[in-house]
Design brief:
This protein is of the alpha+beta class. The protein is 34% helix and 19% strand.
Length: 220
């Protein structure tokens, strides 16, 4: 994408920086784009490290479009994730802020897939902890970076015990009682249909009750 109707993103080092961040063989973990003029996007910086390292290069008087690479997970599941961040510095003017809404989508398309994307004008949001929390919520798991460094402790036993306790509690509250069997001898009864007619009859009685409307049956 060399340019859009709204933006000039033709600088070749933009794509190079993105590819660098996404490459498994590169040490680069972040890049920051900003404006040159009103509609030209340029590479401001790139480097290694996490959110803290990237934050050091952000200007409170500029709009910064950032791509951050984060390794998350534990011993069972380590993975690479990407964060797309738009930082609108608290000293950015109103007209420049207004352009962000129209340009953000184009920059996101240029940056590519991300697991988390958010926009902020608060420097307090630019923390490792905030990034970690957002990634955990987006993945539906509470990944703790290096949490199993000292060894992995399974919680399967606790989960099983809690489930068993809950089942026993629900079982006591059920309204289904135990099976009650009859303890007496029932009298001999003749089964009847809904009309009260006996359902068991001799063969001669069954024949007399048969209606022979069919000419074929009457021949028999």
């Amino acid at each position: 994408m060399a340019s859009t109707a709204r933006l000039d993103v033709s600088a070749t080092n933009l794509k190079d920086a993105i590819a660098d961040v996404r490459s498994d063989s590169s040490e680069t973990t972040w890049c920051v784009f900003t404006y040159q003029g009103k509609t030209t996007i340029v590479l401001k910086s790139k480097g290694t490290g996490g959110m803290d390292a990237m934050k050091a290069g952000l200007d409170d008087a500029e709009v910064s479009y950032c791509l951050l690479r984060v390794e998350s997970g534990d011993q069972e599941s380590r993975r690479v994730k990407f964060v797309f961040l738009v930082y609108v510095g608290p000293s950015v003017g109103g007209l420049t802020k207004g352009r962000v809404g129209g340009h953000k989508g184009d920059i996101k398309q240029l940056m590519g897939q991300s697991h988390v994307d958010f926009q902020t004008d608060d420097p307090e949001d630019l923390t490792e902890e905030n990034i970690k929390d957002r990634l955990a919520k987006a993945s539906g798991a509470n990944y703790d970076l290096g949490s199993n460094a000292a060894g992995y402790e399974s919680k399967a036993g606790d989960i099983k015990a809690k489930a068993s306790s809950n089942y026993k509690t629900l079982e006591k509250e059920t309204n289904i009682g135990p099976v009650q069997y009859e303890s007496f001898e029932r009298p001999k009864e003749t089964p009847v249909d809904l009309g009260g007619r006996p359902m068991v009859a001799a063969a001669s009685a069954a024949k007399s009750n048969t209606v022979m409307d069919s000419a074929f049956l009457q021949k028999k």
